What does this fold into?
Amino acid sequence: MRGATLAVALLLAPLVGCAEPARFDHYVLALAVAPAFCEDDPERKRGFAQCRALSGSAFQATPLTLHGLWPNRLDRRHPAWCGGEAGGAFCRLPPVELPPQTRARLERAMPAVADCLDRYQWAKHGSCAGLHQADYFAAAAALTERVNRALGDEIARHTGREIGLAALLERVAARDPELARAVSFDCRTPHTREPSKRRPMLREVRVAFERTPITGAPGKPLPRAAAGIRHYNSGCPQGRAYVDTPLD
It folds into this structure.
């Protein structure tokens, strides 16, 4: 029902100023585990506002932060830069225009707004969805909140230790069964100078969603197989992932 409600809301919303949608099959919601992202080349990433602001309390409040909501194609020829490619630093891209309530919600879901990630994600991915900016980011924030409700606390509870992916799936299935069939986990070993940190970490959680035919908005969770994803585990040895602690 959540997907249907969101689709109806977007159908009724004004779409003035949105571009024609690109051809794509479904969406992928990419959510970052911020400590692992910031640990990857920490000397460079300490320059990011999102990493400087990362604390234990911030991580506990939002364990999974919004990386992006991406229009995807099954043939992997994913659309991008549908409004015209713009190079250079993120903050040199045009600002994203959002109502105050949507802006506040997005900043909670995507702390990297402080580094202008919203501008980059719109220019590269959102411009291909055929949605108004406000509708696109409202949907992305709402889906981020939904996934955090399903498994965010379980990830945060394992800070500084390993967690089994099967246990994560069980938690999701108990709270939001539709998500359990659509979620996958990605581990990567960070490029850090600290030997103890050079281990596969839970870096990202991804969830596939249907593209609603009428509105083009994200709808119900899409099972992994239907999205062309073979398995819920990507790069996590023996089905286990280390949950990194925030930078000091």
Remarks:
- The chain is about 35% helix and 20% strand.
